Amino acid sequence: MLTKNEVGKIAELAKIPLGSEELSAFRLQLPKIITFVENLNKLDTKDISPTFQVISKKNELREDISAENLTRAQALQNAKLVKDGYIKTKGVLDAK
Amino acid sequence: MLNNFITLKQILEGYKKKEFTSREVFASFYDKINERDPIIKSFITKLSLEDLTLNDFSMPIAYKDNFSTKGILTTAGSGILKDYIPPFNATVVEKLRNSGFVCIGKLNCDAFAHGTTGENSDFFATKNPYSLERTPGGSSSGSAAAVAAGFVPVATATDTGGSIRLPASFTNTVGIKPTYGRVSRYGIIAMTSSTDSIGHITKTVWDNAFVLNITAGHDPKDATSSCDKTADYLSDIEMGMAGLTIGIPKEYLKGLSGGIKDCFNSSIKTLEKLGAKLVGVSLPHTEYAINAYYIITPSEISSNLARFDGIRFGTTRESFGSEAKRRIMLGTYSLAAGYYDDYYLKAQKARTLVIKDFKRVFEKVDVLAAPVSPGIPPKLGEVVNDPIKMYMMDTLTVPANLAGVPALSVPAGFVNKLPVGIQFIGKNFSEKLLYRVGHAFEQETKYRSPKR
Amino acid sequence: MLYESVIGLEIHIQLNTKSKMFCSCSNDIWKKPPNSLVCPTCLGLPGALPVPNKEAIKKVQLLGLALNCTLNKNSHFARKNYFYPDLPKGYQITQFSDALCEKGRLETSFGEVAIRRIHLEEDTGKSMYTKDETLLDFNKSGVPLAELVTEPNITSAAQAVEFCKKIRELARLLGVSNADMEKGNIRLELNISLRKEGEKALPNYRVEIKNINSFKFLKNAVAYETKRQEELLKAGKEVLQETRGWSESGKKTVSQRKKEMENDYRYFPEPDIPPLEFDEKYVGMLKQELSQVLFYKDKNISEASFEKSKITKEKITYSMNDEN
Prior knowledge:
The complex is a heterotrimer. Chain A has three helices and two strands; from the N terminus they run αααββ.
């Protein structure tokens, strides 16, 4: 059973702000889902190698050629705060 | 004048014979949208007809809202992106545009494609045109509903765990989940990088194959896109299925509701009638696919959604909906030190076994046939508050996603007037064969009754 | 009681490819207007995907071969997940296991320095901090970086400085980097701890020192930190395992957030990039190219030492006495 503390730690690691109601709700829901996926423990995978990608190709690489991409206006168009061509954010330690 | 259930094939033929103009076609679809979408609610963004540039052969299309469309609002169904305007087009959008498709709008979906009913959209829930109190399925809820309601002849969509096939089966439409890597993912807002498959929904199998001819192919901007040669997906479509061997996987027949089972048995009889040889097969690790999927998916999601920090675009992370938060939390947990081996790594090993199951079976049969959903389209509100119940709707679709193999969902009848689908699953890059089988089945059964 | 220093170095080298690591944006970012050399990929826009630069991979492998590393036949990229405003995707594409190069060495006048690995990764954007805001420029985001990690077998500031200078010269000679410290092409971090003289076991702690922008700072940081740790140990106190930054103005190391050391990066293989595989023909081609640069015809490149090779003066553009 995931404790409130553990759920809080995961939320912090994932930078997901949670209100106290959400925290309580997740404390109940997450263990159930973890139990659901733990059905996998019935499966013997001792000598099985993992598949991280289903494609069989390798070395999908790009030639070292530079090309123009976004204009600065395009790069900045969705930022909430900009200043002199920079994207602005509040002080780093502000990140909750 | 123009029947709104007109297909792409009919539109193209009509243009050639000069039966109508492109403006008349678009106007007709817009009339239908204006009349009925306020009830169905499939569109998040509708472009104004006057703003569209049409030529003589323009065809209308709408994009699931996780497809980046340059200069057009792209939300992925999430409040975080309620103001996001991409400065670039997804590769698929470019391809379709260059082939004469004109975007008329962006379609609703579960936020970030997380869901099986469309109710996880941060904006509103789309309704099933066949029954307004029921969901059209998800995550491509808007795409399926829009095609079913006759708002557009084709809508793009994505299938990461069943998100094309499930809504297609719930709305009497045709949905393709191509082989992973067959269609470029560049510009599609990522959910699960290793299973996201880019497809589309249409009214007919022919239309569906026609569109795949445009979207399929290698993209140098997507390192996972396949270099395998594409096919002409229409070339074998009239060949019929006589002589083909179709496998019926026994694990997919468990836990079906009575009506679904009857429908599927009827479908099997049709396949036999059409000359296919039916063989019972087994995919023994099917049961574990859903468990593996719900570890792998949240894990990759937790990483893919880390870019949403409100700095370069979008709003801050409080705006994530519950399901997104839930998956991010689960994924963070599965990848965390001490848990990686038991969860993420274990799930990827289970995935190897699922892949082997399919490989083995395709040595014996040409194609698999199976139901798409264990049950009928749920009522709105029925599953959305029970995550596990919602996840279990994907039991019959996720195995194909884990393995990367293609699958086509085709209308297969009705249970209490609610649509039911059948899926044909093939080995990698066998879409041409799937269309051949799907078209034969469709032409024999013709489960297309227009719904108001 | 005498103590000896146990020092390990992490050197980040910006590669001088024409384009960035995972996109085709120009890599010539020095003094360019902010956010003028970006694309959906290096800006981390939703839906963008990475495609690795072939030349960047080759440059790291050349450097590795010159340092007597083994090139891994199979390699792959991984995601390192953490949050920082100048990290647009919320993860850095780097290498965790199966780095491109492993187990190398370089001779110095104080003895051989063992190199644990050299891997390839992407750089972050640039942050500029003022009192209450941070300004972000993503031109640097996605620039290819070679990260060279030594074993902790460096024993003095002088050896550390000599090692870094040689690496710098080698990078320039091979044409893999301009390695100009002032431009940030080469960045140093060190890990330093102390143990009793003669002890063989590694100390049970290490202090990471960042923000070292010149060889002079490196020398001063090692000197300061050695003294600081020695004083603590002599007084019977423990040295805290932490990250510290070098403050040139204060001429001392200063504690940074301890949290950095506790981050769980949740590494997993990068699903957007297929794995890499290098055959013997390819490695042979690299060795050939390397031998031409070093004027060294002998197949046994492991014997090549920087001073012994017949390098003409023109090839060395900076002197070894350069304090920068």
